Amino acid sequence: MPELPEVTTTAKKLNQILPKQKILDVWTSYNSKYFKGKGNIKDPKYFKYFKKAIIGRKIQNVDRIGKNVLINIDGPKTILVHMKMTGHLLYGDYKKVGRGKKHSDQGEWQATTVGPLQDKFNGYIRFIMRLGGTKRAGPKYLALSDVRKFAKVTLIEDGKVDNFADTKKLGPDPLGKNFDFDVFKKIILSKPAGRIKNVLMDQELIAGIGNIYSDEALWWSGIHPETAVKKLKDTELKSLLKNIKKVLNLGIDFGGDSASDYRQPDGRPGRFQLRHMVYRRKGQKCPKKDCGGTIIRKVVGGRSAHFCDTHQKKK
């Protein structure tokens, strides 16, 4: 699932190109009875309302909260996109070509921009907006590729993100200017019996950290993912906070992590997967100098955890 660095990368890049563009049309292939009445474009009735509400409006800016991309349009209204496990937003030239080959999950929309957008990971288009383009170019498209169909697109009618059900319960942003040690410690110690890996990933405590960056930060800090919060000393918590900020900023600097499906808006993969110390390195030698340990994988609270069997000892 795209985490804070991937969502930040997407929002920043889209904010450079989308503002002032008008939404001319919108399409989706999402359609699920499970989402009936749930305020999601996967409900055809809701999509009809959504389409009517956004067509003709101009995009003001693109922002992020937690793992959500916020496309603010005039009104004010906000289109919220949670990319979930395999979704990512793309921008470029597209054409509709029908339903594609039988038994194929690709083919209704194809990128006509030659290059990374034609990567197979970018071909599972479930949602698309036709935009008014700019003075220098004709209409462009904002597309959502989502192979497993888990992504969510909805509309915050009044644009008040802080009052919206999906976002009002989110914890603070770990890269926020006020997220210091005192704030971090108070949050962490609110779950004294919790395992640190799971506490870091609780979006109601801290927004934006998932499997990849929790594994990396814990490795850098020498903390076992199953360690109970109450057993961590202040020195360990200070190290952990420093390394959380470090790996998240590195993730942004490298354009996100594309170990799985994530791609940047121009279709190119991020490069943070080239900087992994522990994530998805099961069975490999620990890269910590003079450690000699081996990276192992274990399910912790229903989520995979990667850690060194030597310098990350469980307390």
Descriptive tags:
alpha+beta, 21% helix, globular, four-stranded antiparallel sheet, N-terminal domain of MutM-like DNA repair proteins, 315 residues
Task: Please explain how this structure is put together.
The protein is α+β, with helices and mostly antiparallel strands and 315 residues long. The protein has a domain at 4-163: Alpha-Beta Barrel (N-terminal domain of MutM-like DNA repair proteins), CATH 3.20.190.10. Helix content is 21%, strand content 22%. The chain is built from 6 helices and 12 strands. The chain has helices at residues 4-15, 44-54, 181-188, 196-200, 211-221, 234-253; strands at residues 23-28, 59-65, 68-73, 77-82, 87-92, 94-96, 109-111, 125-131, 140-146, 152-156, 295-300, 303-308. The strands form 4 sheets. The chain has a 4-stranded antiparallel beta sheet with strand order 1-8-9-5, covered by helices on one side. A 4-stranded antiparallel beta sheet has the order 2-3-4-10, with helices on one face. A two-stranded antiparallel ribbon has the order 6-7. Strand 2 and strand 3 (68-73) form a beta hairpin. Helix 1 (4-15) runs parallel beside helix 6 (234-253) and helix 5 crosses helix 6. The longest helix has 20 residues, at 234-253. The chain starts with a helix and ends in a 7-residue tail after the last strand.
What is the SS-derived class?
alpha+beta
In angstroms, what is the radius of gyration? 21 Å
Helix count, per DSSP? 6
Q: Strand share of the residues? A: 15-25%
Q: Find the count of extended strands (DSSP E, 2+ residues).
A: 12
CATH homologous superfamily label of the domain at 4-163: MutM-like, N-terminal
